[in-house]
Specification:
Elements lengths: L52 H12 L9 H4 L10 H12 L9
Helix pairs in contact: 1-3
The chain binds calcium ion.
Calcium ion binds next to helix 1.
Length: 108
Amino acid sequence: MEYAASGASEATTTQSSPNTSITSSEAATTTTTSLPVVDGLAGDANGNGTVDMSDAVLIMQSLANPSKFKVVRNDLADVFEPGSGVTSMDALSIQKLLLGLITELPEK
Ligand SMILES: [Ca+2]
C-alpha cells in the first residue's frame, strides 16, 4: 500500500536579501497515543522527537529529584537493557550515542 502525497511540494526560494530574517515557526503537534507500540525514537526521554543531551539530563534529573522531574517517555528512555527500568545507565547509553561510541539505541 503506497500513499502518494500529491502536491505539497514547496519550492524553497533562497534569496540573499540583507534584511530577511527567516523565522520558521513549526507548530509542535503533540500526538498522544495509547497504543502499546513504541512510536518514538529510542532514547527520547523527554518526548520532543530528538535524542540529545537534554534526554540524558532529564533522566539524571528524574533520578535525583523524582518529585520535580519526570521522564516523559519511560518506554523510550529505557535504552540500556530494555525492561530493566530507567536508570543512570540509560542516560549513559544516550551519551554514548551522542558521542558516537555506539551507533544505535537500545544499547546492545
Ligand atoms: Ca528528546
